[in-house]
Amino acid sequence: MSIHNHQNEAICFSNMAKGLAMSAALPCDTVWTGARLLPMTDRAQPDTVIDNALIAAVDGRIVYAGPAAAAPAYDAQRVIACGGRLVTPGLIDCHTHLVYGGSRAGEFEARLAGASYEAIARAGGGIVSTMRATRAATEAELIAASAPRLAELVAEGVTTVEIKSGYGLELASERTMLRAARALGEAQHVAVSTTFLGAHALPPEFSDNADGYIDAVVDGMLPVLAAEGLVDAVDAFCEGIGFSVAQVERVFAAARALGIPVKVHAEQLSNLHGAALAARYGALSADHLEHLDGAGIGAMAAAGTVATLLPGAYYFTRETVLPPIDGLRAAGVPIALATDCNPGTSPMTSLLLTMNMGATLFRMTVAECLAAVTINAARALGREDIGTVARGAWADLAIWNVDQPAELVYRIGGRPLHARYWRGH
Predict the structure, then answer these.
(1) Which residues contact 230 (CB under 8 A, 6 or more apart)?
(2) How far is Cα 335 from Cα 325, in angstroms, rounded to an integer?
(3) What is the pLDDT at residue 46?
(4) Whose CA, among 57, 76, 88, 105, lies 20 to 30 Å from 203?
(5) E strand or H helix at 79, and its extent?
(6) What is the pTM of this model?
(7) Is 189 left (phi over 0), alpha (psi -120 to 50) or beta?
(8) How far apart are CA 424 and CA 422, in angstroms?
């Protein structure tokens, strides 16, 4: 199902829910009682915990969430006692490269010895080395290799994951990656949003012909994969070791012609003004952003583009230039956090650790970190029916063995998840 269909479904269900709430008894199949609810309903202001809250759902959609004392009468098939535990929306990892073949541990060792990320990439390592391993893998092999990574996220309360392609760099392998991503979601009961990242790196067969490769992306790959229903969004790597602004714009124009939303890897290593370009195309998000300038911030604010920050990559590559957090805050740009799970620069499968890094490395507040992996992460995927515990949203819930929300950001290690519900189950 496409992102746009999810949104339309949410609107229709919200209207239905309003009607149900006015009836004498609320028909619902599942009710959660005794919750300390952090609903994440307001992007502008930190939420406060609602004590003794009740959540009711029908067919996996929330029809009531709030104080039990204000809830309508309900007739439920199943009642789940939360025992005073903290309940939040299921977490959302809105930027991952989770499906890939091989390992890049050797490159990690080389960087420890002084080699730069860019030097490794230009020597044939980096993304291209993962491309070779991914092309050599079957769909079943990619699923088997990637399933444990997804399971790690699920075990921490994640209910939605974005998974990018971009390690195939030719039609058949890009298709295999996207099909594997879809299959992983079905097997592990997690919503997967697939992003086509054909413009990730130059494959060897186009080593001296970047424009020719972009031709292949926009004419040979994107239309076919979109027609097969495998593309929820289109991404591109706008960077000196990636693609130029002009080349990325060709990708965005092709996506726009197909009605597919875009996002961008930008301003990670330098400032090519990729975020401003993406904002002109109404991008869902611009990601990394360590070298983002004021003009880029202003363009993102005007377009409503989310800033997705990736502290795992910042930490792993020992970056020293911080993303402009204060400027993003001042401009009202929504901030999301994500693991950036990938084999080369962020081999991380913990969204809880990502929040801790957002706080310690980027000096984000607890409230900002929690919003960054729920309501703002949903916005980075173009979704309004997840990332919040509110009427009309999916009943994607995480129930935690913690005393206060700050513990979810404060802890390093451990799994405080008590239970995870995806679409009410």
Answers:
(1) 175, 178, 179, 182, 194, 196
(2) 9
(3) 66
(4) 105
(5) strand 73-81
(6) 0.92
(7) left
(8) 5
